[in-house]
Design a protein that fits this description.
mainly alpha; 6 helices; Arc Repressor Mutant, subunit A; 77% helix
Amino acid sequence: MTRASVYLILLIIQFLCAMIFLADILLSVVGLYPQPVVWSTREMMEIGALLGLCLGLIFGGHLVWRAFGDLRRAEARLERASGAFIDLLNERFDQWGLTAAERDVAMFAIKGLTVQDIARLRETSEGTVKAQTAAIYRKAEVSGRPQLLSLFIEDLMGGERKPARPARDKVA
């Protein structure tokens, strides 16, 4: 039996227990009194319902506690991955010999900004940004933004970098 099955069964039990109390309250509000139940049986039903609700509360609290722990771990992994990606970007930018301006433009391009957006943010002309992106692509040996992004994706996936352009045979 899986953990999900156990929690589902517990949820059903908790629902049934809550229905016992709800039915009791609604029947008394409406003025309907069902066939009298032996007092000891009624007490056992209410104790069972209370135990079911308490069990649901305990396991619900446990699930919430685990969910917060999972969230903290996921955030920590994301932070580490983000740091690793920044390190990878900087390593590649150093390897390609990008200038500070080209680094800024490359970061914006990798984030998906358009040439117009980059020019506006950097307070330069679109022509300057186009020249800088062309220099970035040339230094990275790629033909455009999709290939530039694929370099980083391949690095993150641990793949070998394939040449962006086919090697030309040299004629002697």
